[in-house]
Amino acid sequence: VSVVESGRGLVEPGGSLTLSCKCSGVPFDEYHASWHRQTPGKALELVAFITGDGNNARIVDSVKGRFTISRDNVRDLVSLEMNSLKPEDTAVYYCKIQGMSSNKEFWGQGTQVTVSS
Question: In this structure, are strands 17-24 and 45-50 parallel, antiparallel, or unpaired?
Answer without folding.
Answer: unpaired
